[in-house]
Amino acid sequence: MNNLRRLILKGSMAAGTLGVAAGAGLLVPSQALAAWPKEAFGQKTLDGALSVLLGSDEMGESADVSIKAPEIAENGAVVPVTVTASMANVESITIAAPNNPAPLVASFDFASGAHGYASTRIKMGKSGDVIAIVKADGKLYSARKNVKVTIGGCGG
Amino acid sequence: MAKKSIKVRAKHKDGVTTVKALMTHPMESGLRKNSKGEAIPAHFIQEVVCEVGGNMVMNAHWSGGVSKNPYLSFKFDGGQGQTLKLTWTDNKGESDSIESAIG
Questions:
Q1: I need a labelling partner for A36 at 20 to 30 A (CA). Which of A1, A10, A143, B88 fits?
Q2: What is the ipTM of this complex?
Q3: What residue spans define the domains of chain B?
């Protein structure tokens, strides 16, 4: 009788510790799910980065993808870029600047229900294209826009 | 990290929630040099995760090519009356998160 009571007490204590661990965010599944793709961001060429990140560098230019970015960016350290993809089932949007030392700038993965829309601000070392790569239904679509930079954003 | 490094605003309209967030972070790419010519070590946000009601909606991976004090905006279906959680993690393992009601 007493033994059984001990066992139950022990069991409930163990469960209590687990609950605390989950509450402290140690067991949040999303953190284990998404590792930062170091290899992709280290690539020096855009094709290499895309192959590593998205599994392919074959992409078609698409009118359904549009980039909003300034024609002339006075300050390369802050170039606002907005990507809109009007197709359905957008899985990810990747923003790249091929003239940067590390071409891959940012990548956004979306869960179902999210729209094909991402807006952020990027750095550009010198004038060149901004490329948006949209993954939808397993295929890659892209669009590009030339941005002239008068002051580089990667120097001192 | 300093307190409240994130400002977030989530607005719900016609079934779509638009999230706008502004984070305070140096976003040092590791390629810049200081006045003595020494490289400034890289320090940038690598990952931004947005969860609504415990479900991940958006997960962004960034390099040092994103501007200092980064701005982020995205949209998703639904979300009315729910709470949004935005978390960033940088390459030094520091992180911050904020919760905000979708209004």
A1: A143
A2: 0.89
A3: 6-30+38-101
